[in-house]
Specification:
Layout (H helix, E strand, L loop, with lengths): L1 E2 L3 E5 L17 H11 L1 E5 L1 H9 L4 E7 L7 H6 L5 E4 L1 H8 L8 E5 L6 H5 L4 E5 L5 H13 L4 E4 L9 H6 L9 E3 L14 H7 L3 E5 L6 E2 L11 E5 L8 H5 L3 E4 L11 H11 L5
Parallel strand pairs: 2-5, 4-5, 7-8, 7-12, 8-9, 10-12, 10-13, 11-13
Antiparallel strand pairs: 1-2, 3-6, 4-6
Helix pairs in contact: 6-10
């Protein structure tokens, strides 16, 4: 049915409706990663995140929300009159997604074209490099800290989680749409990876490359040695394993956050916020 306020609103009565397959089984992370890649989409979760995705210029394929949220999103639907709006009872929507929708709208969005290393580094002075950060919550939190604390770009390794996975987007509060990022060091046609050799590309563009890691040679985060670099890239590893030995060897220096007695380190997301603040450009 059509509605002059909301555009093409489609009432869902069957959880097996093929038109909303893209929203099915959202709690199955492995399935979502496969489906999102195949279909070239990502899912924006919550009304605020949907609005931020649209403000970033991303194109919606469809909207998906409960009846009670239709009026609050009327301006969005009016701005995209050809995009279908799927709605239904809470029970029907929950049977499709696998969880109760309480954050407003969902939207299936076209994935933007990947950026190149040169594109994200243009004009950048502070860059975060994430190696094998597989937890979507940590990834989203790092993006949010980066956006708020002056990091100009983020690079992610081949095994890093997807910044456009719905949980990463939601935890970041949509800041993944504003911080330029690129995946680097992926396998070539012969199956050979260029990671961590990709770190040398940073050095070639004038960046000092520092690993945030407890090592025998690590200097404190507030060391004067870190103040001499106008362009600085900070490498962070996954929770637990940390930065790999191969990536550590490719870095110019190692840095650590001085900790009080009895505490070895912070969660990678918390550590990123501390490091981004301390290493921000001062001039």
């Amino acid at each position: 049915m059509a509605d002059p306020v909301h555009g093409p609103v489609i009432e869902l009565g069957d959880a097996a409706d093929p038109r909303v397959d893209v929203y099915s089984r959202l709690t199955d992370a492995a399935l979502r990663r496969r489906q999102d890649t195949v279909h070239g989409i990502y899912l924006a979760e919550s009304s605020q995140v949907v609005r931020r995705a649209l403000a970033a210029g991303h194109h919606p394929r469809s909207f998906f929300l409960a009846h009670r949220y239709l009026d609050s999103m009327a301006d969005v639907f009016a701005a995209h009159p050809q995009v279908p709006v799927y709605t239904g009872t809470d029970a029907v929507l929950e049977s499709i997604t696998g969880f109760h929708l309480h954050r407003g709208a969902l939207a299936a969005m076209d994935r933007p074209a990947p950026r190149t290393l040169d594109e994200v580094l243009t004009g950048a002075r502070r860059v975060a490099v994430l190696e094998n950060v597989s937890d979507h919550t940590n990834l989203g939190a790092i993006f949010r800290s980066a956006a708020g604390l002056g990091v100009d770009a983020i690079l992610i390794s081949p095994e890093c989680a997807d910044p456009l996975y719905r949980r990463s987007i939601r935890v970041s509060m949509g800041t993944v749409f504003g911080v330029p990022w690129a995946r680097v060091g992926e396998a070539d046609g012969r199956g050979r990876t260029a990671w961590p050799e990709a770190l040398h590309g940073l050095r070639a563009q004038g960046f000092a490359v520092a690993a945030l890691e407890l090592s025998d040679t690590a200097v404190d985060l507030d060391s004067p040695a870190l103040r001499d670099h106008d362009r600085l890239a900070l490498v962070m590893g996954a929770e637990g394993p940390g930065v790999t030995a191969e990536a550590l060897a490719a870095c110019d220096l190692h840095v650590k956050i001085p900790m009080a007695a009895g505490v070895d380190s912070l969660n990678v997301a918390a550590a990123s916020a501390v490091a981004f603040w301390e290493l921000r450009p001062r001039a």
